[in-house]
Amino acid sequence: MNNNQEMWIVKAWNNLSQSLSDAVARIFSPNDDKYPAVGVQPFEGDPNQKSQGEW
Hints:
It contains one helix and no strands. It has 55 residues and is mostly helical. It starts with a helix and ends in a 28-residue tail after the last helix. The protein has one helix spanning 3-27.
């Protein structure tokens, strides 16, 4: 193997390991969603009527 092939393999390995570590860090990092904390909303509708037939 010549030097260019070795460098390409090293760069590819570094890119792969960086991508995998970024993915693992994102999976196990705290939630970064910006949703408002509104809690449980009360139900204000009418309940469904009893079914008229069978499935």
